[in-house]
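User: I'm putting together a small comparison set for a docking exercise, and I want a reference complex before I start. The sequence is below, and the ligand is adenosine-5'-diphosphate. Could you produce the 3D structure with the ligand included, as structure tokens?
Assistant: Of course. I'll restate your input first, then give the structure tokens for the complex.
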Amino acid sequence: MSATLQKLAVCLLASEVAPLSKTGGLADVAGALAKYLHADGHDARLCTPLYSSIDRAALAARPVAGLTNVPLVLGTHRYAFSVLEATLPAAGVPVYLIDCPALYARPSLYTADPDEHLRFIAFTRASLIACQHVGFRPRILHCNDWHTAFAPLYLRTGVGRDGAFAATRTVLTIHNIGYQGIFPAADVADLGLPAADTALLHQNDLAAGRINALRHGILYADAITTVSPTHAHEICTPEYGMELDADLRARGAALTGILNGVDYDEWDPRRDRFLPVHYDPAHLAGKAQLKRQFLARTRLTTAPEVPLAGVVSRLAAQKGIELMFEALPQVLAARPLALAALGSGEAKYEQFFTELARDFPGRVTFEAGYDEAQSHWIEAASDLFLMPSRYEPCGLNQMYSLRYGTVPVVRRTGGLADSVEHYDAASGRGTGVVFNDFDAPALTWALDTALDLYARPGEWARLQRNGMSQDFSWERRTGEYLAIYRRLSGA
Ligand code: ADP
């Protein structure tokens, strides 16, 4: 990030951008990466759909001249989109908002509607048109997940053969390989490709009757990234590759893992806006005070000395909740332990936590739903934090936990493996408890190990301090993305 290096024009295409729209880590990455590139003097601009949930008045979004009611024909579908220009709050980054109520005025960002693929093909196409129209000639076009994964292909076709993109190189970041944007081959015309260019589509998929958006990003992006180095290896294997592993292996050197950063403006116990008391490694009494307040708030009746484990999670199979079915009742029955869980998702997991709270009254509390304030309280008040994920491309809560002196208990997968180091009592090194096998005995072992460490206050304080000194800031990650941009563009 030296001042002597050339500044780059970077266009980020993202189906969600924090703080405008968010369902997961993609929104954080898009918002933070654009913010830090901009702060470093690069011409970073974002394109994102103008969902009806975005308050255009609060953003003071203004129409881009000449981009009102632009016709877009995709197969037999006709749309008219407009482009509004705004600035990303607290980041200063220019944002082009693609306005097309027929596609983006829905109750949620993502849908299971039959035109889901069209919503994001249209978004991708409209974003390219917006760049062309305003004369933005990005050196890097950075697309994210399946929603914008056709962009690299478009740049190779009649759609993208334009001076605006002559020097453009493409990057695809895979945030969650579980979502691939698959639609029927019968809808191939929806891509709006000139007939000659359909030869660029994955022919075996077409023959099998489907089109896979993410696969085309993997085939055609100049560089591919995913959100942790370990996950970059994992997705090249049949176990984690979700049937895209062979394509990823074929791209070999083009694939890199870059861990997500943490927004320490939001997640730091020194200044957390959701907490009435703040603390740092030298003043852990503040954490103890928050724990006492939290126990009272949530009607947990265990003594403050009893270790408190936290869970904040989407309740989905990916998160390994099923391992807790056996491990938690067993450990709760055998040892002093309290649990605070927050999450929403599949009914069977919500039911499990509801029953656990009933079976261990005063020791287990569960809140079903999405509650930002409560998620900060759990991070601050808990002693340990559980993430036994089946797979985890990056994961954020383990990194938050480290900063809050809340010892993460995680499975060795994806970003968990890259951000938590198993504690070694002999050397005093390490930041958490890490287990390998995806089974309940392994989680039980990890919980017992953590509780044994908790019973040795000197050891525990060391573990907490080790974690609190870790730095997962976005400033560092931006440099890793820039290195890829520079390698591709020769800048
Ligand atoms: P994923 O994107 O797979 O859900 P991540 O760990 O990357 O997992 O990000 C999850 C983010 O969502 C974290 O910031 C976490 O605190 C937050 N989160 C998850 N569930 C809830 C909830 N029920 N209430 C509040 N925040 C939640």
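Residues 9-261+474-489 form a domain with the Rossmann fold fold (CATH 3.40.50.2000). The chain has 17 helices and 18 strands.
User: Thanks, that's exactly what I needed.
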